[in-house]
Amino acid sequence: QVQLVESGGGLVQPGGSLRLSCAVSGNSRSITTMDWYRQAPGKQRELVATVTRSGSTNYADSVKDRFTASRDNAKNTLDLQMNSLEPDDTAVYYCRATIFPRNIYWGQGTQVTVSS
Predict the structure, then answer these.
(1) How far is CA 34 from CA 19, 22, 50, 79, 101, in A?
(2) What are the tens digits of pLDDT across the range 46-94?
(3) 81-110 in b/e burial notation, b at 16+ Cβ within 10 A?
(4) Cα separation, 103 vs 80, whole angstroms
(5) CB contact set of 54 (below 8 Å; sequence gap of 6+)
(6) Which of 45, 58, 86, 105 lies at a CB distance of 3.0 to 4.6 Å from 39, suitable for a disulfide?
(7) What distance in Å separates the CA atoms of residue 26 and residue 112, rounded to the nearest whole number?
(8) What is the DSSP letter of 42?
């Protein structure tokens, strides 16, 4: 069984930074794409960043130039460095992994709150 565990969330002031991490364990030898999603209260879950196995990244327009996603294939980890945080970034952040061929697994989520 594959498990994803996020960490690093918390409360931060506007303009601050946080780093989220996601660790994948279990039968995870064939991870293809890894993603960060978020869901704010009363809103749909949205894609924040995608990292392919080769390291290519893609970001939502709302976080471009502020967030940086990276992964370590040897350790099966995915990170999200979030800078210049804004109140609108407040959400539960979820890690998602796609394992060949198309099995999708989610983490339990970690809360990020941006407030003064």
Answers:
(1) 16, 10, 6, 10, 13
(2) 999 999 999 999 999 999 999 999 999 999 999 999 999 999 999 999 9
(3) ebeebeeebbbbbbbbbbbeeeeebebebb
(4) 22
(5) none
(6) 45
(7) 26
(8) T
